[in-house]
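Consortium newsletter contribution from the modelling node. Members have asked for a concrete example of what our holo predictions look like. Here is one, prepared for the GLP complex that several groups have been discussing at recent meetings.
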Amino acid sequence: MTIRVFSTPRAAAHALAAHIAHAVAANPRLVLGLPSGRTPIPLYRELTALCRSRRIDFSRTTTFNLDEFLGVAARDPGSYRAFMQRHLFDRVNLPPGRVNFLNGTVRNAAGECDRYERAIARAGGIDLQILGLGLNGHIGFNEPAATLRARTHRTRLSLATRRANKSLFGNRLDAVPREALSMGMATILRARQIVLLVTGREKARSVERMIAGPLTPKLPASFLQLHDRVEVWLDRGAASRLKRR
Ligand code: GLP
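And here is the predicted structure:
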C-alpha cells in the first residue's frame, strides 16, 4: 500500500481532484467508482470547481457508486443517489446516462445486484475506485462480520453505521434503513486502481489496523492489502497512529 499524508482534509481533497482530472485527461472514457459519506464532500467541491473552470471534462466518463440504502428511492433526500446529485452530479457535465447507481426500491434485490455486476463488466470494469472508510473499518457497506461477500449484495447495517448516517435522515436513528445494497469485496478489489481517502483522528485506529494488522473480516478494509495498486490518502489526524516512515 502506498500511503500519502496531507496536512489537512482540504489539501488531500485538492490533490485527489487533481489526480482524478489527470486520469480523466489520460483516458476520457474512464470508469470511476465513487463513495458517498462526509469524507468525499471536499473532493466533490474541488471536482466541481475544476469542471467549472474546464480543467476536467466528464462528458465521456462513466461512474458507479458503491452502495445505496434498501427501500429508499433515488428522489428521497436521504438516498445516496440524492446525496451524489447535490454534491456532484448536478454540478458537473457528467451525462446522466453515464451515472450508474444501485436502485434501493426494486422488488428483487438479488436481481438488482446481478444487474449491477453485469453493468460494471459491460463498462469494462472500474478503472479508478475512490473509497471512504467507515469508523468500524467498513468499505462500501461491507460491514465487519464473520464472513464477507464477494459480489454486490443485500446487507444489514450495524448500529454504528446507522448512527453515522443519521444526518441524512433528519438525525432520526429510527428513520435510517436497516439494510442496504453494496458492491462486494471482490467487486471493489477488481478495480484497476484504488484510492482510499480517510480524514479525521477518530479513524486513526481503523487506519492503523487496516495497514499494519492481519487480513480479517472484522475489519473489511484490511482486504485492500491484497490489491497491488492501492493508495491510502490521509490527513494528519487519520495518520496519527502510524509510525513515521
Ligand atoms: C458510509 C458509506 C461508505 C462511506 C463510509 C464513511 O456508511 N457506506 O461508503 O465511505 O460510511 O463515511 P464518512 O465519510 O461519512 O465517514
